[in-house]
Specification:
By secondary structure, this protein is α+β, with helices and mostly antiparallel strands. The protein folds into eight domains: 1-94, no CATH class; 98-197; 201-269; 288-423; 436-443 and 459-545, no CATH class; 571-761, Alpha-Beta Plaits; 766-846, Alpha-Beta Plaits, CATH 3.30.70; 855-860 and 883-979 and 1021-1042, RRM (RNA recognition motif) domain (Alpha-Beta Plaits). The chain is built from 42 helices and 25 strands. The strands form eight sheets. The protein has a five-stranded antiparallel β-sheet. β4 (665-666) and β5 (669-670) form a beta hairpin. The longest helix is centred in the middle third of the chain and has 57 residues, at 497-553. The chain is extended, with a radius of gyration of 42 Å. The two termini are 67 Å apart. The relative contact order is 0.04.
């Protein structure tokens, strides 16, 4: 794996490895990791402090058996982790971080306390002298706690060298004035940084630190003594902390160190300057996407005299990193331009190896081709090359000056001219022209015999003239005026009269064309601006009109209940045999769940860069100490090299605690843990038949979708919404811009809703039921029509609509619904309750909204008047018998409880005409009545095993099998711990009837009796028919064909 980057990553990685260490070999490996960390981040105080503390703990642990080491490990440990090695490590670390004025005292205080502990046991004069020297050196270094250090030294002298107290302090005070003054100058900036850090404002910290670095660099230029050390230390702080992955600051640091090396050659500095090549190596390891840093690394390697193989290795390291094109092709071109420049300089060096020219010849051509292929793979046909044509110019210079192959170089120019990006650039044509002029001037004059008339012919740069002529012919040239100017001057200076006349004609035409082009461009800009203003105004008007129209006619996806669908008496008796106590139990369950609102958006974290083969168990184990996980969803990244997870915790506090694992290590992978807020979109009001593919296609242009969650329909089959979780906030923000989009569907025009998910802003229900304007009439006389009911109600107010549901045979069901214009009118009409109308006593009440809708029923499309089309009176009287309905009815099993009846009906109708469909999510299935037995047989064969959603295959069977199937039990429910604040009502269990069973367990004491009775009835031919097997349906299907 790649090494960690930055002090936080190194510390997290080492911490993760230390958790699994329990032997001497493992401890030695941890020490080696610390060595690598201090090499990668030499100025990190936290890494050095952790390293020295760990090494010191190993030294103390191996001295006795209290730490649990074996005897053999103790003996080996005493040889490896010696006292001198430990103290030397403290000293080495201090030398590298002592000029960190803000926090070096943390390291110093820990080190000096260890030194004083040892002196307290030995009390040697050498120890006193050593610690006194350490204190004197420390007080000459600027740091934030100078006064505290001075007091510590005072106490030390009072105890161990009181006789020299005054002389020591007098000397220290005199020599420390420069250090105190240096810190005083920097203290205001340090205080600003501390305040920004205290409030957690990372952006403010970066702004202050940038200003601080610029100021410190300026101090170095004024006085390159103490500020050099302080400047380097400040850069170490910045690059190990908040600017770990900032390529601009790394470039500034490289330039700063390079400048110090330049100065040191004329006036040696007192402070050791970091190796420039090492700085470049660290820079590219922290910012592998920066082509500018890779270019400086290659240049530094060349300057340091590295071999060709070493420089080539750097180039290969750059091309092998997957981040080089992170910000586009510019970094790729920067790196390749540096590589090609190295090849050219190496080949043109007079003392170069004889193979250098051949290597450069091949390498430059390969680099040019590699950049082109890289660009095409990234941008396809849209890639047009480097606008500065750097590699092409390097290749032209090499071919011209080193190899003398002018024709080959001209071929490179002509090849570049084929690219529209360069063909439209005046700079390209101007440089091409200058190259042709350089070639022309370098060619010797031909030694031809003098003509008879004694006049020598005029030497003309024809090819240079041709270049300018070609440039003038480009219709989209970015600065044609400049080319016209150069062309005109060139013709006057070099060409014959005929060519000059023709050229001036072309220039005149070009100037007219350019003038017209400029006018057209100005007019086009003005027209575009006016059109944009008009379009914005028109769009605002259109949205207002469409919204008003949709509100007037009502949205097809509003909370209307389906009442005009009904099953026949025989089939309904089977599908509605649900004990009343079970309905009550489900209602209690719904009410209990209403109190337990899951705020997923504020309790979830998105974890990226997990190992590709990570398991849910490993994720739960890793995060279990931060809280209870309600749900964990994982998904593989597109490249297959890693995976990501969306983890839902129980409370926002637990979610925030899990953020502590950000940039920590999961095994050997450095993970990112970010809040899940702003990633999830609530989507509703889309077509009823929409599935996951439809939603993904609808939002495909917004960004990568991590997950789509459809709601469970177990307790309410009318739900039509879903949650989209995106991989980043930018994609989610784009998705919200889809809000208000008009969707065309069979239901009419739908206004899509796409908003950030926020349970606290749940929209209140609207419509006639929610507003109390709908009246429910029961026990209506079967002979009454909708017009009769309307006339009866109009005396109470304006009646907007009346619906009289009918069964499949076209008969009234004795129930009606009426919508008034106002709530007051509907309440007044309730007076009709208990009045006699015809031969029946009317029951009237306001319609009540209910969320418990466990079954969805849909029938064949009705005619315009609301009745189902019938062939005639005889057909109406002799409808299908209960047995016939059962024979052409099947059950669809293992249907996910997120699939709507509309989606299921659209799937089933592909295989034949459907008379009736009853969706029962609480049994994971649906009852489907087809037009005939043959159609049902074909559908049963074709639907069995169909994968309706990934991982869920449908099964076909009988209605009895469906009734035995329980509702879907979700894994997430098992993961949820019951909240302490909620007390669900439970039946009294003190009567000895055993514990209450959870939702989904149904009392089943009569299963055996029912099965026996059913079997006997089937045998006698008086009960329900025996369920048909697949073989039976296959025979029916084949028979139907005959």
């Amino acid at each position: 794996m790649a090494n960690p980057v930055g002090e936080d990553s190194w510390l997290a990685y080492i911490e993760e490895k230390r958790r699994h260490v329990n032997d001497l070999e493992g401890r030695v490996k941890i020490v080696e990791l610390f060595k690598s960390a201090t090499s990668a981040e030499p100025g990190s105080m936290r890494i050095w402090l952790a390293y020295c503390d760990y090494f010191w703990s190993l030294f103390t642990d191996c001295q006795s058996s209290e730490a649990g080491w074996s005897t053999e490990e103790q003996q080996l440990g005493q040889q490896i982790f010696t006292f001198d090695s430990a103290l030397r490590l403290w000293s080495d670390g201090y030398e590298l971080i002592k000029y960190r004025v803000n926090d070096s005292h943390e390291f110093w205080n820990r080190w000096i306390s260890i030194e004083q502990e040892q002196l307290a046991r030995t009390r040697t004069s050498f120890g006193v002298q050593r610690i006194s020297h350490l204190f004197r050196d420390r007080l000459q270094v600027p740091h934030a706690t100078w006064d505290e250090t001075s007091q510590m030294f005072s106490g030390f002298l009072s105890e161990y060298n009181n006789a020299a107290y005054e002389s020591e302090f007098k000397e220290v005070t005199a020599t420390a004035q420069g250090a105190k003054a240096a810190y005083s100058e920097r203290e205001p900036r340090e205080l600003k940084l501390k305040r920004a850090e205290r409030v957690g404002d990372a952006e403010e910290q970066k702004i202050i630190m940038r200003e601080y670095l610029d100021w410190e660099t300026a101090q170095t230029e004024k006085n390159p003594t103490l500020p050099v050390a302080l400047g380097l230390a400040l850069y170490s702080r910045a690059l190990a902390g908040i600017f770990t992955a900032d390529d601009e600051i790394w470039a500034n640091y490289a330039v700063y160190v390079s400048s110090l090396h330049t100065v040191s050659k004329t006036s040696p500095l007192q402070y050791n300057i970091p190796d420039l090549l090492g700085v470049h190596q660290r820079a590219v390891s922290h910012c592998p996407w920066s082509g500018m840093l890779w270019a400086r690394y290659i240049l530094g390697a060349e300057e340091a005299g590295l071999t060709f193989q070493d420089v080539e290795h750097i180039k290969h390291a750059a091309t092998n990193t997957k981040d080089l094109d992170k910000n586009g092709m510019m970094s790729v071109i920067d790196m390749y331009a540096a590589w090609c420049g190295y090849l050219k300089r190496t080949a043109m060096n007079p003392s170069a190896h004889e193979d250098a020219v051949d290597i450069a010849d091949v390498g430059l051509s390969v680099a040019l081709e590699a950049v082109q292929l890289w660009g095409e793979s990234l941008y396809k046909k849209e890639y047009q090359g480097d606008p500065n044509y750097r590699i092409e110019r390097i290749l032209v210079q090499f071919l011209t000056e080193k190899k003398g192959e002018v024709d080959a170089a001209r071929k490179v120019w002509n090849g570049a001219a084929q690219k529209p990006l360069l063909a439209n650039s005046y700079d390209f044509w101007l440089n091409y022209y200058l190259w042709e002029m350089m070639v022309f001037s370098s060619q010797p004059r031909p030694r031809s015999p003098t003509p008879a008339n004694g006049e020598m012919p005029l030497r003309v740069p024809t090819l240079a003239t041709e270049v300018l002529s070609r440039a003038l012919q480009q219709d989209s040239l970015d600065w044609p005026e400049r080319i016209v100017e150069v062309y005109s001057q060139h013709l006057n200076d070099y060409e014959h009269a005929v060519t000059l006349r023709r050229g001036l004609d072309a220039i005149h035409k070009a100037r007219k064309t350019v003038a017209g082009r400029r006018q057209h461009e100005q007019a086009k800009v003005a027209a575009a601006y006016a059109a944009q203003v008009e379009a914005q105004q028109q769009q605002a008007r259109s949205i207002t009109e469409e919204t008003a129209a949709l509100q007037l006619h009502g949205s097809p996806s509003s909370s209307k209940r389906k009442r005009d669908e009904e099953v026949s008496d025989g089939l309904e008796s089977q599908s509605s045999k649900r004990p009343k106590n079970a309905d009550a139990h489900d209602s209690q369950q719904i009410n209990a769940e209403e109190g337990l609102k899951r705020d997923r958006e504020n309790t979830s974290v998105l974890v990226t860069n997990l190992p590709a083969d990570v398991t849910l168990t490993a994720i739960r184990k890793y995060f279990k100490e931060y809280g209870h996980m309600v749900n964990v969803m994982t998904e593989m990244e597109k490249d297959g090299g890693s995976s990501m997870a969306l983890i839902e915790f129980e409370t926002p506090e637990e979610m925030r605690s899990a953020l502590l694992r950000d940039n920590k290590y999961f095994d050997s992978s450095q993970i990112s843990v970010k809040p899940g807020a702003g990633l999830t979109i609530f989507v509703s009001n889309y077509p009823a038949i929409a599935d996951e593919d439809y939603i993904r296609n609808l939002f495909k242009d917004c960004g990568d979708i991590f997950n789509i969650r459809f709601p469970s329909l177990k307790f309410n089959t009318q739900r039509r919404f879903c949650y989209l979780s995106f991989r980043d906030t930018e994609a989610a923000q784009k998705a919200t811009q889809m809000n208000g989009k008009i969707l065309e569907s069979k239901e009419g025009k739908l206004v899509l809703q796409a908003k950030y998910s926020d349970p606290s802003h749940k929209k209140k229900r609207d419509g006639a039921i929610a507003e109390g304007r709908e009246l429910h009439l029961r026990n209506v006389d079967f002979k009454m029509t909708e017009d009769d009911i309307r006339k009866m109600l109009e005396k109470y107010g304006e009646v907007q609509s009346v619906r009289l549901p009918k069964n499949i045979n076209g008969r009234s069901k004795g129930t009606a619904f009426a919508i008034f214009a106002s709530k007051e009118q509907a309440e007044k009409a309730v007076e009709l309750n208990k009045t006699k109308l015809g031969h029946r006593v009317l029951e009237v009440e306001l319609s009540k909204e209910t969320k418990f809708k466990p079954v969805a029923r849909s029938t064949r499309e009705a005619s315009a008047d609301g009745d189902v089309a019938m062939e005639g009176t005889e057909s109406h009287r002799s409808g299908p018998s209960s047995r016939e309905i059962q024979e052409r009815t099947m059950a669809l099993l293992n249907v996910p409880d997120t699939v709507t009846d509309a989606r299921l009906r659209a799937l089933v109708e592909k295989h034949g005409s459907v008379v009736k469909l009853i969706l029962q999510p609480n049994h994971q299935g649906a009852i489907i009545e087809f037009a005939d037995v043959n159609t049902m047989g074909r559908a049963m064969l074709q639907l069995d095993g169909y994968e309706i959603v990934p991982g869920r295959k449908l099964r076909t069977g009988s209605v009895e099998e469906l009734k035995r199937q329980r509702g879907e039990s979700r894994v997430t429910d098992k993961l949820m711990a019951p909240p302490q604040s909620i007390r669900r009502p439970v039946p009294n269990t003190l009567g000895g009837r055993g514990p209450k069973k959870a939702l989904g367990f149904v009392k089943n004491t009569k299963t055996t009796e029912s099965a026996s009775a059913a079997a006997g009835a089937a045998t006698n031919g008086t009960g329900p028919a025996k369920p048909k097997s697949n073989a039976d349906f296959k025979a029916i299907f084949l028979g139907g064909k005959d």
